Amino acid sequence: MTNSKKLSIISFSGDFDKLTAVFTLATGAGAVGYEVNLFFTFWGLDAIKIKQGRSAVGKGFLPKVFGVFMGGLKSAPVSRLNFGGLSPSIFRHLMRKNNVATLEELVDAAKVLGINFYACEMAMQILGIGKSDLIPEVKDVLGVATFLKLADGGQTLFI
Prior knowledge:
- The chain has about 160 residues and is of the alpha/beta class.
- It has one domain (about 5-150): DsrEFH-like (Hypothetical Protein Ychn, Chain: A), CATH 3.40.1260.10.
- It is about 40% helix and about 15% strand.
- It is built from six helices and five strands, in the order E-H-E-H-H-H-E-H-E-H-E.
- It has helices spanning about 15-30, 60-70, 85-95, 105-110, 120-125, 145-150; strands at about 5-10, 35-40, 115-120, 140, 155-159.
- The protein has a five-stranded parallel sheet with strand order 4-3-2-1-5, with helices on both faces.
- Helix 1 (about 15-30) runs parallel beside helix 4 (about 105-110).
- The two termini are about 25 Å apart.
- The model has no long low-confidence stretch (mean pLDDT about 85).
C-alpha cells in the first residue's frame, strides 16, 4: 500500500526555472501536509550551496572551476532563452509584479515547512563538494539506494 502523502523530488538541474518548479511543488506539498524529500544531485546541488555567488567551491582544480561556473541560486540561468543571464532577473521581476513567490522565497518557505533536504554522495565526490559547503538544512548526504528507501511508498519526480 502506498502513502499518498509523500512526495520525493530528485533535483538534477541548476536552472532557475527547473529549481523554481522543484521548490513550488515541494512547498505546495509541504503546505498541505505531505512528507517532502528533496534529493539534490549534480547541478541541482547548486541550490543548496552556502556560497550562492560564483566561487571556487570544492577540492581540487577542476571541481573549483565547476564551482565558479555553477554559481548558486543568484546566478542560476534559465534553461531556455536566458538572454545572456538577463532572464532570471526578468522572471524575478514578473514574479514580484504578479505577487508570486520568487525562487529565494520558495527556498526559505521550504526550510520553514521542514522539508527534508538531502545531497547526493556520488555527485558531491565528483564535484569535490563537502557537507560543510552546503546549507545547514541539508539533513544528510545519501547514496541513491538510501534515498530510494526514503522515497518508497510515495510519488517520486525527477526535475
